[in-house]
Amino acid sequence: MAVLSLVEVQGLTCERGGRRIFRDISFAAATGQVLTLEGPNGAGKSSALRILSGLLPPAAGEVRLQMSAGYAVTDSEERGRLTGWVGHNDGVKAQLTVIENANFFAALYGARIDVMGVLEHVGLKRLADLPAQYLSAGQRKRLGLARLILSNRPLWLLDEPLSSLDAAGRRLAAELIGEHCDNGGIAIIATHETLGLDATRFFLGAA
Amino acid sequence: MITFLANPKRFLDFSSAVAPWICGLAFLLLAAGFYWALFDTPPDYQQGESVKIMFVHVPAAYMGIMIYGLMAGASLVGLVFRHPLADVAAKSAAPLGAAFTALALLTGSLWGRPMWGTYWQWGDARLVSELILLFIYLGYIALWNAIDDPVRAAKAAAILSLVGAADVPVIHFSVDWWNTLHQPASIIRPGGPTIDKSFLWPLFTMMLGYTVLFVWLWLVRMQTEIFERRARSLMMARGA
Amino acid sequence: MTGFTALLVRDMRLAFRAGGGASLAAAFFALVSALVPFGVGTDLVLLGRIAGGILWVSAALAALLSLDRLFQADFEDGTLDVLALSPLNLERAATAKILAHWLTTGLPLVVLSPVLGLLLNLPPPGYGALIASLIIGTPALSGVGAIGAALTLSIRRGGLILALIVLPLITPALIFGAGAVMDAIDGSGRGAFLFLAAFSVAAAALSPFAAAAAVRLNLGG
Questions:
Q1: Are C3 and A109 an interchain contact pair (Cβ–Cβ within 8 Å)?
Q2: Nearest-by-CA chain A residue for B237
């Protein structure tokens, strides 16, 4: 896993559909840090994450990923390749089974780790042959977490990762995030809820 | 000039000042062209007076293609250089291009009827290509209207117009090729071998008149579009 | 397995599982072709002369059928975001999806076409040309169709707009494809296959770029 020393956002402004969502936001997160983005609905937490990932171009401002090796990455596609993403939607194909989805992710990311082991880690091993459409929302979220592990990316951007998860699921998510950051990763999380982790909080007010 | 007009306010000021003159010039040219075409040119020995439809048809056909090129060019400028008025320009030009193309098809059909005995002849490669061009325009306009987000709609339409621009020559070539199977029934050969020299000047005047008319209509449409966007922004700001 | 292959296999698997894949397009192809005689009459000679054209038009419509979900399905469940952020760039992802579409929609049409040719009394010299023209031409349908699919992915019920956008653009394929069949029957050679191949190659090479641009646009909207 390439090690990221800093994620920095400067003067970020977001416009969607012709209206301004937020303006001139700046924050940073360093190695091992968990940063939570908080704020009311419509404040732009999801949009901020999309901008960070490179999926959404900002109206103004810069996102910079400072690598431990010394160089900085600003290009949106390159940033995307350093991003582990859990968005609003599950990123899971309903017609494929759990194991088929997981194997696809593994092949996509070139992951050489044992896929079944990852599924076991997220508690889906027994459901491996079930088509994903029969999973509960919480179970689908766990499959998303499995994808996160398989992607092996230094910067985790998570949009409401705890929604739909039961208590055990939340513990799992917190544990995974904690492990990730202990190993030198960075996690930026948009959430309404408390993670039970030592996190820096950033508030996005309405523009 | 293009960068000068990038500011919407400057564009509005400029176009308001210039528009009446352009309108006047357009009608002057068209009036002159019409008079010239109708009264100063001899009837064709074969087609009689009906050949004069060509003075309405040929410039319209020409405008249909030229406007598409303009639209594609504006789209490119919008995508690459992010000129703020580029997508307004493209969006405003499209219905005008469609209208000219439709006019060309209508007049082409009327022109050909005495010769063909029917209102449509698939053997006329140019007319068939124009029919496909009309559909391409309609698809472009439909795409603009179908996407809710105006920024996204502009960019999607831009991509479509560029793909279309690449495809239109291919379509024209394939339609031509398709016609080699049939007897070419195209009696409509603008500027064909028997065109009387006296036709050229009125034709040129009409072409110029159509172009200036288009520029006027285009400026007016662009102004309307800019005003609509402003009204919408005001409403959104007020509601926030 | 590389990411490209994984995506290709995934899409093919999905096409056979979800409703709306290979069998649906093939059934539609057969249905439309079979409907024409009801509209045109039972004159076998007439049917034989227009069979090539009918089959090409039906094939184009059938290929369009499954296209509107090509990117939209992935957009809706968040998989398109995942693909955009994966090591596979969007152009290669688009290529994989177009290839999968062709393999699961275009090829079945090719396989079914001689049978339908029989139904429509296609003259014997036409069969080879029909199969060959469909093999060469259907990739163009998938490619150009994918551009339309990417442009319309955010539009609910975008299927009609997709058809309106894509059909004019694929006229050359239709003209050269059906023309190749007619030429084979008439015994004339006007280079139809060459032009069809050129169009298909160009479409296959260029459409992933346009489709990827349209996908990026919709993800970043």
A1: yes
A2: A19
Of A110-114, B42-46, C39-43, C96-100, the one with minimum mean pLDDT is: B42-46
What's the mean per-residue pLDDT of chain A?
89
Answer yes or no: is B83 within a domain: yes
The reported pLDDT for the residue numbered B181 is 62
Does B99 fall in a domain?
yes
- d(Cα B75, Cα B71) in Å, to the nearest integer? 6
pLDDT for residue C20: 57
Residue A112 phi/psi, 5-degree rounding, is: -105, 15
- Residue A44: DSSP 8-state: S
Calculate how close chain C gets to A19, using CA atoms only, in Å: 12
Alpha carbon separation from B54 to A27, B6, B114, B206 (Å, rounded): 67, 38, 13, 10
Mean pLDDT of the region B28-49? 76
∠ at Cα A175 (A171, A179), nearest 5°?
A: 175
Structural domains in chain B (count): 1
Nearest alpha-carbon partner for C12 in C3, C4, C21: C21
Structure tokens at A122: 């997220």
**Percent of chain B scoring above 90 in pLDDT:** 45
Q: Which residues make beta-bridge pairs with A67?
A: A4
The first and second tokens of residue B51, run together, are 């050949």
Where along chain C do its domains lie?
3-219
Assess whether pLDDT exceeds 70 at residue C221.
Answer: no
Looking at beta carbons, which residues of chain A come within 8 Å of B151?
Answer: 17-18
Q: Does the residue B173 lie in any domain? A: yes
Buried-exposed string B21-51: b where 16+ CB fall within 10 A, e elsewhere: ebbebbeebbeebbebbeeebeebeebeebb
C164: closest CA of chain B, how far (Å): 5
Calpha distance B207→C194 (Å, rounded) = 38
Which pLDDT value is given to residue C19?
64
Q: Which of A88, A94, A108 comes nearest C88 by C-beta?
A: A108
Q: Do A90 and C17 touch (CB under 8 A)?
A: no
Contact B159, C151 (CB under 8 A): yes
Residues C16-44 pLDDT 10s: 887 656 788 899 999 999 999 999 988 99
Instruction: For residues C72 and C158, give the distance between their C-alpha atoms in angstroms, rounded to a whole number.
Output: 9
**What φ, ψ does residue B204 adopt, rounded to 5°?**
-60, -40
Among the residues of A97-136, which ranges form H helices? 98-109, 115-121
Question: For the CA atoms of chain C, what is the radius of gyration?
Answer: 18
Pairwise CA distance, residues B78 & A70, whole Å: 36
Distance CA C208, CA C198 (A): 16
Provide mean pLDDT across the span B32-60. Answer: 78
Question: Which pLDDT band, with edges at 50, 70 and 90, does B193 fall under?
Answer: very low
On the question of pLDDT at A33 being above 60, the answer is: yes
Residue C87 has a pLDDT of: 93
Of A152-156, B46-50, B147-151, C187-191, the range with the lowest mean pLDDT is B46-50
Mutate: best of A15, A16, A19, partner B, most B CBs <10 A = A19
For residue B80, tell me if it sits in a domain.
Answer: yes
Distance CA B110, CA B127 (A): 12
Which range marks the domain in which residue B68 is found? 53-187+195-234
For chain A, say whether B150 makes contact (Cβ under 8 Å). Answer: yes
